[in-house]
Amino acid sequence: MRYRQIVNAAGAMGTSLPKSTVSDLLRRADTRAGRECTGKLADLVAVLLANTEQDHPAAAPWLDRRAWQARWEALDDRDRGHAAQPPVTGTEGVFGWDDPLAGRRPGPGIGWPKDRHTSRTAAAIGELAALGMYRQARDVAWELQRSVLEAHGLRDPEALAVRHVAAYWVGEAGNRRAARAATDTLLAECRAALGEEHTLTRLARLRLAAWTASAGDAAQGRRLYREVARDGSDDRITLLSRLGGAHAAKMVGEIDEAEDQLARLLPDLVAEYEAHHPVLFAARIQAAQVHWKGTRSAAHGRKSLERIVADATQHLGRAHPLTLKARARHARLVHADGDPHRSLELAEQTHIDALCVLGEDHPSTLAAGNVLSVILAAVDMPAARVLLGHLCEQSKRALGDESRVTLGIRHNRAVVTHRHDPRAARPLYEQVRDARTRVLGAEHPHTLLTRTALAYAVLALDGPDAARPLLEEIHRARVRVLGPAHPDVEVTGALLRIAGQAAPALPSGRSES
Questions:
Q1: DSSP for 358-426?
Q2: Domains of the chain
Q3: Residues 6 or more apart whose Cβ sits within 8 Å of residue 88
């Protein structure tokens, strides 16, 4: 609803809500909550609830007036005595997560735009990113790049810095392969114009490693991360390359190595970053995930993530993307530990908090909803199907058809459909497979997961003779990409053995979260 529509609806309900009041209550607040506002806020909530379906996820936190007023007043109590800061997401900043150039931008040679209009445009990218509007951040970055290139040419340091921004947000908006190609070209031009040791050249090497790994070639990404970490510099670019290298090691199944790398990295991160910095939480979450993959002990992983969730909630906020990520992983491990009702409660609250603080379009909210759908499917399949349908449309509208989050939701929607109708699931799998192949490549682990799920559907519909060639191709690709000891390789090997026998009743494809 537009502000004027809300004002008119309030008048029809006998309530006076000036447009300025509505605007003030709905804008992103930079001041403490203010207990004195609860009366007007109650009127606004009443109007919005009257125009919202009661079963809509966004309505849930506001149905109990006493509960939301208590939360509002708790914010006021928490922030009393000092000005509240705008929420941080861990991705804001024109150079993206976690801005490896932080603290160096004023220094020589970074080439940051000095023109006031250009600087304000760059600042807008960070604001859009903080709101989860990655496609819009990408579009503004492209406009910024166009204007700077017209003024300065391709290889001016200012232009190279802006090209970094544009390439990064292309990837964050969903197209990892395009970001990789743009960063590869940018690296060559930074080397030619600035030299191998320049900060922008090293940043391009870090970004190239990141996009290479996330675009499907984790082994090559891992090698590139190692090269950056070995170049002798002792700064945030090196530390983030070590963190990325541990993640890439986990991606290729080298769990012991990833765990060892993170154990050696954490003390260095503590020394570099201020206490409770998002990078530290990201590393702790990685370490918990790696340890769980190494031990397969849901109980141990559950306890580890409980501590991380408590610390992140206290220091970053309950709806910071990293807090939400830890909370979602915790819910999944609680489910794996045999407590479906508690895990559902945790996942639902995570999604509600994301809706309240970040809004339904934010990538972290959509990702939390995706995890909720996977857990919900185990206890209420019809409700999971409805939720996934809503999330799919919401994510397509907010992030695009082929963003990482949208494709994960679309994959899970196909899996849930498969549970009751393999024939209807088959085209859904094919659409996600084709999209992931375009965006990530045919051998990215996520693409291979969807291809495996499609092979399940083929097996159910057409039998083992039709499914066996698909499974053989997937198995060879997984061995090549992940290594022979990776758990996913064991899965396709087992499926191949099954497909060589009489066609059994197989479970549907694996969900993704």
A1: H-TTSHHHHHHHHHHHHHHHTT-HHHHHHHHHHHHHHHHHHH-TTSHHHHHHHHHHHHHHHHH-HHHHH
A2: 3-79 (no CATH), 297-399 (1.25.40.10), 413-513 (1.25.40.10)
A3: 130, 278, 316, 320
Q: Are 459 and 512 in contact (CB under 8 A)?
A: no
Number of H helices and E strands in the chain, helices first, is: 23, 0
Q: Look at residue 254 in the predicted model and tell me its pLDDT.
A: 78
Position 147 pLDDT exceeds 80: yes
- pLDDT-derived band of residue 9, with 50, 70 and 90 as boundaries? confident
Which of 259, 295, 314 lies closest to 306 in space, CA to CA?
314
As a whole number of angstroms, the distance between CA 442 and CA 436 comes to 7
Distance (Å) of CA 62 to CA 8, 9, 98: 21, 18, 34
- Average per-residue pLDDT in the chain? 82
Judge contact between 338 and 112, C-beta under 8 A: no
Q: Determine the angle formed by the axes of helices 3-12 and 38-50, rounding to 10 degrees.
A: 90
